[in-house]
Amino acid sequence: MIPFEYRPTKNLKEVHASLQEFGPDAKLIAGGTALVIMMKQRLVRPSCLVSLRSVRGLNGIEIKDGGISIGGLATHRAVESSSLVRRRLPVLAETFHHVATIRVRNMATVGGGLAHADPNQDPPPTLIALGATVKATSADGSRVLPLDTFFTDYYETVLNPDEILTELFVPKLAPNTGAAYLKFLPRTADDYATVSAAAVLTLDKNLKIINDVRIALGSVGTTPIRATAAEAVLRGQPVKAEAFAEAGEKAKEAVDPISDFRGSAGYKKEMAAVFVRRALEKALGDIRQQARVRASAKPKARKKVTKKAAKKRSRR
Amino acid sequence: MNKKISFRVNGKKAELEVPTNRLLIDCLRYDLGLTGTKEGCSVGVCGACTVLMDGDMISSCLTLAVMADGHALTTVEGLAKNGELNPVQKSFIQYGGFQCGICTPGQVVAATALLEQNPRPNEEEIKDWMMGNLCRCTGYYKIIESIEKAHQFAK
């Protein structure tokens, strides 16, 4: 690693000031799990690291407008273990659990991971399918960016060098919505996916018609990819196994994988179709499971208390 | 470029001046002489360099020494108290939880962190937690057994 200045900061004001001082040559560091590797490999050579590690108040996980707001400095481990996330949006906890190992998840932050923009990451497909947005903050103010147009290329996003990813927001899901994230891992459990797919499916109240659907994939292009053509196949259609398979086939058109040791490009394309179908099936299973839970939780009609039984009870 | 930092390591305060590009693992091994922590893959995958920062396990090969400023670290050297090995260490010896030994400091530190949260983990929980600690001798059965039975040595 080439030498650099290390600048700890205590609040966003200090962060903005340091970024202004060093310009685009400065890099923000939070958990450092991705950046330190890139610096070791000399792919990134910042003159200054502006550390966010002591900035307070940006690691909360809370309910906001019925959805979930997650501070940019919350760790992956915090999201995965949050009782709020596990209860309200289990798919998000599962997705963050898939990221690397606990050591990495203890350090890597939500904002840092998204800004890093590696197309092999786990959270982006799920977050895109959930319709998540991020807040980018600079000295001039904040803007809210939808995540499905946030990633522009390998390790590139729409963020400006002076912007910090301060918040991730996942909106409230519509009723009768199921979500799933599947990671195809033919090698080891801590590996990047060969293909990953997320689906968020919303049915009508009779659970017969697909009101809405969002599908996103990871590891099959230069960015996480939203498969809008595959979604269009399903929207407004009745729930049918063939339709899910057809959507999977359509998703192949959206992906552009490269051949590597995790599989050939052709294989990954085929697997993209398979995993989109399976993610849709799992999301549907999720909806049906929720419906079963709701049905069993309904209070049963109370037995009428006969006079005799009432007498008996009062004697006890 | 150098920076003054201070942190606690195994309960003792350490104050030193390090180059900003010093990795935590090198700081521990070469500046502080704590060579129990090993470097394997250097990219955060193998787990040989596992240490605890404020009780959470991290890869010391992916952490800059300056990032540990103000924190409390535990390395394998800090697990034994008053010359007595901790339950995980005793169990690794009793049940043969190591072969060549290079991954062992990381395994023991990671397992200690697990038992801190979950004193009686089952096999699935152990596998999930220990997934990021690789044993190139593939001695996993004995490692899992050692962790599963470590509670026997707890007081």
What's a quick, concise take on this entry?
Chain A is an alpha+beta fold. Chain A has helices at residues 12-22, 35-40, 76-81, 83-88, 90-97, 102-107, 110-116, 123-129, 228-234, 241-251, 265-297, 307-315; strands spanning 5-8, 26-29, 48-51, 61-64, 67-71, 133-138, 141-146, 151-153, 156-157, 164-170, 177-184, 195-203, 210-218, 225-226. Chain A has twelve helices and 14 strands.
Structural class of chain B: alpha+beta
Oligomer category: heterodimer
Mean pLDDT of chain B: 97
Specify Rg of chain A, calculated over alpha carbons.
23 Å
Any idea what the shape of chain B is?
globular
Helix content of chain A: 25-40%
Strand order of the largest sheet of chain A: 4-5-10-6-7
CATH topology of the largest domain in chain B: Ubiquitin-like (UB roll)
Largest sheet, spatial ordering of strands of chain B:
2-1-5-3-4
Instruction: Tell me the β content of chain B.
Output: 15-25%
**Largest sheet descriptor of chain B:** 5 strands, mixed
Write down how many β-strands of chain B occur, each being a DSSP E stretch of 2 or more residues.
5
Query: Biggest chain pair contact, residues each?
Result: A-B, 28 and 28 residues
Instruction: Work out the helicity level of chain B.
Output: 25-40%
